[in-house]
Amino acid sequence: MIQYLFDEDGFYEGIADKLIEGLPFKRRATRGHDLCKMLNTAAMLVDSGTYEKIAGETVEAGLKRLGVDDLVARAFASGSKLLVKTAFDASSIANLSKAFRVTIPLVCPDLTRCPTEAEVLKTYATPLLSEELKTIAEALGASQRSG
Question: What angle do CA 127, 12, 115 make, to 5 degrees?
């Protein structure tokens, strides 16, 4: 699973790159844990109970409607015009919270001092996490963007 997440040409590494590139240039080197906090907040906003509220919207618009930061919503949607109901069902959308949290170490300047460290470690300890992350990546269009 670690190799899949940290693959420099992989889906999650690509999202991490978009998040860092989306910061104003002067903030990239001194970003602190801002992105970590944004991703953790996004993880708390997405659960199976939110599915009905956003099912008819695009992934990006749906995430923004839930209160996910624009930068995070754009990076995860990656320009896809897929509707939430096309990409996810009511139970699988909750796995998106795991995708947000596993991205944190890819953008974090120092995980041992990160305010989200405990949540990240709990997520990495989730059984079958690798398969869930691959499913989320495919739902968000990873197979179309690879290569």
Answer: 70
Contacts for 69-72 with beta carbons within 8 Å, 24 or more apart? 69/38, 69/41, 69/42, 71/19, 71/22, 71/23, 71/38, 72/19, 72/38, 72/39, 72/42, 72/100
Whether the Cβ atoms of residue 128 and residue 92 lie closer than 8 Å to each other: no
pTM to 2 decimal places: 0.86
Q: Is the model's pLDDT at 117 over the cut of 70?
A: yes
pLDDT in tens, 21-67: 988 766 655 568 999 999 999 999 998 788 888 989 999 999 999 99
Question: Rounded to an integer, what distance in angstroms lies between the CA atom of residue 117 and that of residue 92?
Answer: 24
Tokens of 133: 């992350």
